Every structure is written in C-alpha cells, then in structure tokens.
Amino acid sequence: MKKFTTVNDIKNLQEIIKKALRIKENPLSESSKGKGKTIGLVFLNSSLRTRLSSQIAAQNLGLNVLTLNAAQEAWNLEFADGAVMNGDTVEHIKDAIEVLNQYCDIIAVRCFAGMKSKEEDVNESILSQFEQHAKVPVISLESATRHPLQSLADCITITENCHEERKPKVVLTWAPHIKPIAHAVGNSFAEWMQEMDVDFVITNPEGYDLDKNFTKDVKVIHNQDEALKDADFIYVKNWSSFDDYAAMPEVKENWMLTNEKLENTNQAKVMHCLPVRRNVELSDEVMDGENSIIYQQAKNRIFSAQAVFSEILDELNSK
Amino acid sequence: MKKFTTVNDIKNLQEIIKKALRIKENPLSESSKGKGKTIGLVFLNSSLRTRLSSQIAAQNLGLNVLTLNAAQEAWNLEFADGAVMNGDTVEHIKDAIEVLNQYCDIIAVRCFAGMKSKEEDVNESILSQFEQHAKVPVISLESATRHPLQSLADCITITENCHEERKPKVVLTWAPHIKPIAHAVGNSFAEWMQEMDVDFVITNPEGYDLDKNFTKDVKVIHNQDEALKDADFIYVKNWSSFDDYAAMPEVKENWMLTNEKLENTNQAKVMHCLPVRRNVELSDEVMDGENSIIYQQAKNRIFSAQAVFSEILDELNSK
Amino acid sequence: MKKFTTVNDIKNLQEIIKKALRIKENPLSESSKGKGKTIGLVFLNSSLRTRLSSQIAAQNLGLNVLTLNAAQEAWNLEFADGAVMNGDTVEHIKDAIEVLNQYCDIIAVRCFAGMKSKEEDVNESILSQFEQHAKVPVISLESATRHPLQSLADCITITENCHEERKPKVVLTWAPHIKPIAHAVGNSFAEWMQEMDVDFVITNPEGYDLDKNFTKDVKVIHNQDEALKDADFIYVKNWSSFDDYAAMPEVKENWMLTNEKLENTNQAKVMHCLPVRRNVELSDEVMDGENSIIYQQAKNRIFSAQAVFSEILDELNSK
To answer: What ipTM does this complex have?
Structure first.
C-alpha cells in the first residue's frame, strides 16, 4: 500500500480485515517491522481515539512516533498557494510538509472540514496538499470528506458481529445534533459499505442527503422507521446539509435513536464512531444497552491502524 | 495492588517505602516488567512533576506511555450522569473512560477539585467516575481530595531523613496564598502521617481546619509557633477554608515560614510538594537554605510512582 | 562537551561537522549510547523543526525523551529573582530547573527573546537561569540571542554544498517582515561563520545592524545588490533593529530575495532557517527553485542535534 486516504487504496478489503483480526489476536506479532522508522502524527484538530489508537498501533510495530499538535505546538499555517504571507500565518503548509518529508518515513494527518466553503472542503484543500507535497506515504487520520481508518474499523467490527450466512442489513441513520457537523464519517462509511457484502441503506431527513459522489446508487430513505426495519446493524451519525452546505434545515420528527426504535429491527447492533452527544444523537439506554458495539468499534481502531501501518511498512521495506 | 487512589490501597506502608528505596538504588531493576503493557496518563489539569515523574517511572518499567492532555488535545468532557448533551460538552467522561479501558492496561488520571461545589469535590465527582467505569486499575495523579503519589513520596523522604531511634515530630503547617487552593495535599498528608510511626500535628489559622474525615483525631493547633516547637519535619502547604468552602477568611498573623520560625524547631527539615509561591508560602531563605529537602521530595516522586506501578503490574501479571 | 549554548562550547568545529556527516550516513550507529539516560526538552515557545529533530536525534541515540510544553502543560513561571510571588506566576523557574535536575540527565530548552527589554534579552534572562541552576548539561534549543543547533546545521549544509577548493562567499541578508523579529538566528549565524573558512559579509538596511558583540569585524554592507555579487551562499533572515531595540525603521528598497537578485551571484545556494513567510522574506520562485537548499538545511537539524547530544553523552558516560 503506497498511501491510505480512501477505500481505493485497499487492494482487497476482505484480506485486510482478516489481517486486522489476526493482529487483534496477537498485536505484537510484528513488533520489529517498523524498527528504525518514524511515523509523524500531525493533528490539525482534536483527537482522542485516533491519537491513542494510532500511537498504540505504531508502538506495536516498533515504529518511532512523533506527535505534532500543529496549532498549539508549532506555527500558524498558511494554506493558500501563492499567498503573500503578510498576515497571521507564519509557515506555509507546503514547507511544513517538506520538512516532515525530511523527518518521517510515514506522515499521518488529521485535517477536518472547515465547514465554511463547500468548494474547499470537497476539494480537500488541506489533505490534497499533503498528497501533492509528501514524498513519503500519507495516511489520513480523517480529512474533510473521509475518515477511512474509522471505516476500516467499522468493517472489522461488522465482520466480527456477523454470525449468519445471509447478508446483513446495514443502515446508516442520520441523528440530531446542535451544530453543523462534517460529512466525513457518513461519506466514508457509505463508500466502504459498498465494498462489503451487505445490504446497505441510508436514512436521513429531506435536505440532508449526502454527496452523491460517495453514496452513488445506495438507496436513501427519508423515513427512519421504514429504513430501520429488520436492520442487523445501525450506524448512527449526524451530518449537516450537503446541498445547502453546512446548513441545518429544520427536522420535525425525532431522529434520536432509542430502544423503542430498535424494536422493529433484527436486534440490531448499534454503532457510532464517537465522540457521541448522549441523549441528543443516541439515548443513554441505547448507548449503555446490550445492542451497542460502540466500544468494540473504538477498540478496533487500533487494529485498523495497525493493519494499514503494516501494509505501508511492507511497501517501504520492499524498496 | 488493584488500584491506587488512597492510602487504604496500600497493604503495608513500610514495605512499599522499602520497595521504593530499593528502586531508587536501581531504577532499571525491573525494566521489562511492563513490556507490552500500556499506561494512559490522563491530565485534566496542569502538571510538571507528576507528568514527568510518572513518565520516567513508566519508562523504567518498560511500560508504553500514552499521555493525553484531555482539555487541549481531545474533547470537552461532560461529567453529569443522564445529561442531555446539547451544550458545550462533546464527549461524556463515561465514554472516554470506556475507550481508555479498550486502549490501556492501567489508567492514571489527574482531576483537581473544581472549588465551586463542596459536594462535588467531597464526592470526587470526576475520580469516582473513573473508579466506577474503569475496568483496569486506576491510579490517582491527584484528585479533588487526595494526592496519594505525593504522600507516598513524602513518606519516602521522611524515612530517608530519619536518623534517630525516637519518633520524629512532623508538623503540617498552613501557609499564606493569594487564591483559594484545594485541600488534596493537606488531606492526603494528614491521612498518610497517621499510618507512619511519627508524632503528627497540624497547625492552621482558625477557620482553616481541614475535613475531619481526613484529620480524624490528629491534634490541630491554631498557634503556629507552639506547633512548630521541636519539630523535626515541617510540611508547608496552603489550603482554603473547608467549612466555608473555598473561602479565605482573613488571617492577621504572618504564617509564611521563615528562618526565624525555624529557630524554635529541632533543626526541622522543610517540605513542600511544589509548585511553591516563593516569599508568599515560604521565604527564599528557607527554600534555598540547608533545611529544605524539597527537591529530594520532588525526586522521590519518581520512586513513589514506580513502586505503585510495579505493584499494579504484579497484580496484572498474576492474572 | 559540557554544555551547548554557543559556538564556544565546540572544541573543533570541523571535527563536529565531520561527525554530523558520519551520523547522517548511519544515524543508528550509536543507538544505545543514551540507554538509561533521559533528556528533557523544555519548550517555552513554539517549535516544529527543533521539536521533531531533537526527538529524532535523541531516539537515534537511545535516550528517553521527556517533552514539556511549559506554558500549556505545567505552570506559569516566575523569572525574577527574589520575587514575592503574589501575582500570576505559580512556580519559579529556579524551582522548575531544580526539579528537572532531579529528573533529567540533560536539559534542553527553548526560550525566545521577549523583545520588550533589550537588557533582559541581551542578558539572556531565561537561559542564564538554566546555566546558573542546572546541575546537568544544558543545551540551547534557541535562546534570546543565539540559535546554535541551527547554526551548526547551517555549517553542515554549507560544507555539503562546497565543491570547490576556493573559499565560498557567504552572505547573510536581511529580509522584510511584518513584525519585530528576534536577532538570535542572525547573531548566531554571524558568530559561527567567523569560525568557518569562508568569506562572510552581512547586508542589511541602515538602522538594522546586528549587535557588534556578535558581528565583530565582519563587513556590513547596506547595499544588498553589492553584497550579493558573486555570492555562493545567501542566508535570508529578518531581524528588527538592535540599536533602537525591536523597532522597525522604514526601509524603502525592496529587500525580498527574488530570482532576479540571484542573477548577479555565483548561482548562489539559498538558505533560511524556517519558518519563512513566503513572498515577504523570499519569493515563491526562490523558495521552490533549484537554488534553495532550505529543506536540506532542515534535515541537517537532526544531525546537528545528534552530534551535540552524542558529545554531551560522551562527557556524561566518562564520569
């Protein structure tokens, strides 16, 4: 694997899921694979799971880890090409990336959507600079439009919880929120589910359809009850409007997932990428109930990251 | 040892002091005991000594260390049970703890008193959630009412400086400050001294008596000169009123420790947990004088932490 | 080497440059030299290259690394001797340093000029406290008046790019900026170039002459075109006025380095310590052009640090 920013960087999804599950059985099985190599974890935004799971995965592989909280620890970054930097920005992202090229064997970066300009977000104004200027493999720790290490952990978790022969029904449901939230987790989950052997539907209120470039031909149902019927897995996530970018059109029905809504399902397992706003996106009863596999999902972030780092190291070590 | 949040988690105080002193002689004697295990150091508040000494102790034991500055690096946490999270908080502490359960073999946490609500602080509103939800051993790096790793370091330091057969006289003296300060260090020191073979008294101005739940039958003297007489060890620390919670009733006498006040003592050794406000809590002359064992105390934070981590690892490795 | 804060701490500059170049060939050749020893990296200011390159250098030598972002992670520091600490400061720098003495085998510190008081900056009000109170070797990661690890990296880079017998002409040129910038990089470069076998000149607008204590007899030319003529290396850096401390007297000519200005040189290599304000200090075309050796310079920060850490470890290990 030469880089990891979308599902397209994976040659064989089933193979990498199996690999991650083998790593979960024996996390230290490749503990010197990364010896003498350095991964830079660059955070332009907050992180708990991604920060910790990436560090654990890297340590399990014997990689040196450099963590940079770019905003607090380094310099205010300029992102515009050709900018005359006579304002608040002190270092151009291009130069920061070139320096990371000199210091790291792998660069992993978290760069959220700004939620101001649809064009900038859709074009991945920050990640694209890493893809363009990095001379070492780039790994996304969530970008404006995708969160692929989360999605891989989601696929691992679904695989672990599939105990029947038939295809499971997987529903991605919109949830309420109080602020305009990015589309990355929703987009990414939609993209990866299309690569899995599942029946996948999305449900969200009108006005909240995700970008067609990610959802493609996936069925979108605007009635949550109808969508949840017979579901085996329900993925709960909020996002703001994509069409009317970052707007929050009024929603009259109550979309918060509750135990009552689970009754109509096939004892669906409930998933969420975390952090979650309890009693806004999900009720306490669901979060703390037996259907939740949310913490298992969080744990699988380690093995998702470790499988990807390991594949990247295979590529580096083969040179 | 299954957890470490109070002196009650110690089976035999003399034994663990001896163990810490053996570690001080040879800090790398158990350098692979923690191999393949991870300790998460979670800071909800500032830290210098605790941060560094815990990292050194963990590294000396071969533990992987994950440090999380929760406020700056992760998400704004909700602490209220059942909260409808439609405000500023992004992640519930319960969920953060459950995720730490997935990632760490040991969770260590610093969570100061808020100094707003006596009830919340007395009930350890944050640490109690860690004790309730953590599925791995929890270590306090100072909580609302106690600072046990400091107190253990204090016991080690007193032991190192006791060269006579007779019981030493140990005085905990209140010191001036400009802000309402928490009771954790005072409470904890009082609690631990009651387990040591020492004559222990507390001195503070009227209105500043510590919580009886910690001081129990310890003699409290409101006249500092009287209390300091013949002292072998003087522990200097400020705290605000406990009865009139977080208030700072006026104090007319000068309680700042000076060389003059030491004259009446048995060449008392002076202790402080640091950070100290020079020339407010203690004079420069005392801080920089021959009676101070304050930096030795700071150094012993390493061996205090390492002895505790080692005991916790014994428990984990025996499973 | 007992400490490293100026060029005077180097016994033989050519030897240490050679050592750094050997390390660059084989960075892991001394990978257990620092085993069981701890370096504390204390940042009182922002850092990207220094932070990451110091960590890599330390890891390459097997050192344990403790990083402390003092302002954000620990306590607000007092710097004034004898201060009555009844204001905003919580811990005296003396006490923080004494604690670091207990925890670290080497202390490295970044402490920029405050740019308020010429006297405080010239007297190195912060670094001098480390030099006075540290009982272990002190390494400057840039102080008020010098940036020696940068200067050593600059010497390494110039050495790598000298392919002719004759002495190269090296020009330090002032560049425009929008804020009053410290003199540390300029001072330091001037100081180190006087130890190298090069023809060295400085060019800056009138009113911007650096401190004579650093530039000594080096020729200062106020006409940039004249200075750049036949240059082999051009070091670009802004600084504010030293005489009228931190002022920014008006400059009428355009001092930003462009390709046009390079025409008059001997295909000069262009250097900058980074971060750089593009199109203010340097044009994009120079930054991204073939003459730039700026990223190579950034990479050499690793080997500069590693050579110095290695020399310090030789001293420690010989005790």
So the answer is: 0.95
Beta-strand ranges (E) seen in chain B are 38-43, 64-69, 77-78, 91-92, 106-110, 138-140, 169-174, 199-203, 219-221, 233-237, 269-271
Instruction: Tell me the fold of B162-292.
Output: Rossmann fold (3.40.50)
How far is B139 from B147, CA to CA, in rounded Å?
10
Closest CA to A86 of C20, C176, C307, B95: C176
pLDDT, residue C308, reads: 98
Which of C63, C95, C105 best tests the B interface by mutation, with the highest count of B CBs <10 A? C95
A-B Cβ pairs (cutoff 8 Å, strict): 80
pLDDT reported for residue A28? 95
**Closest Cβ opposite residue A84 in set C56, C275, C279:** C279
| Residue C8 DSSP one-character state | G
Q: State the DSSP string of C290-318.
A: TTB-HHHHHHHHHHHHHHHHHHHHHHHHT
Round to whole Å and give the CA distance between A145 and C82. Answer: 55
Question: pLDDT tens, B223-239?
Answer: 999 999 999 999 999 99
Residue A18 half-sphere exposure toward CB, CA atoms < 13 A: 4
Residues paired with A64 in a beta bridge: A38
Q: First and final CA of chain C: distance in angstroms?
A: 12
Cβ atoms < 10 Å from Cβ of A254 = 10
Q: Which fold has domain C7-146+301-317?
A: Rossmann fold (3.40.50)
User: What is the C-alpha separation between C162 and B260, in angstroms, rounded?
Assistant: 66
User: Residue B72: what pLDDT?
Assistant: 86
% of chain B exceeding 70 in pLDDT: 100
Residues 6+ apart with CB under 8 A from B300: B20, B24, B153, B156, B157, B160
> Which of C307, C284, C272, C309 minimizes the C-alpha distance to C49?
C272
In chain C, residues with a C-beta closer than 8 Å to the C-beta of B69 are 72-73
Determine the average pLDDT of the residues in C312-319.
94
If pLDDT is split at 50, 70 and 90, which confidence band does A308 have? very high
| Number of other CB atoms surrounding residue C195 within 10 Å | 15
Helices (H), chain C: 13-25, 49-60, 70-73, 93-103, 118-122, 127-133, 148-160, 184-193, 212-215, 224-228, 259-262, 284-287, 294-317
Pick the CATH number of A7-147+301-317 from 3.40.50.300, 3.40.190.10, 3.40.50.1370, 3.30.2310.20: 3.40.50.1370
Give dist(CA A227, CA A173) in Å, integer. Answer: 8
Chain position carrying tokens 């330390």: C58
Give, as one character, the DSSP assignment of residue B264.
T
Query: Structural domain boundaries of chain C?
Result: 7-146+301-317, 162-292
- What is residue A32's predicted lDDT score, i.e. its pLDDT? 96
**Sorting pLDDT into bands at 50, 70 and 90, what band is C197?**
very high
Q: Which residues of A touch B70 (CB under 8 A)?
A: 48
User: What amino acid is encoded at A145 in this protein?
Assistant: T
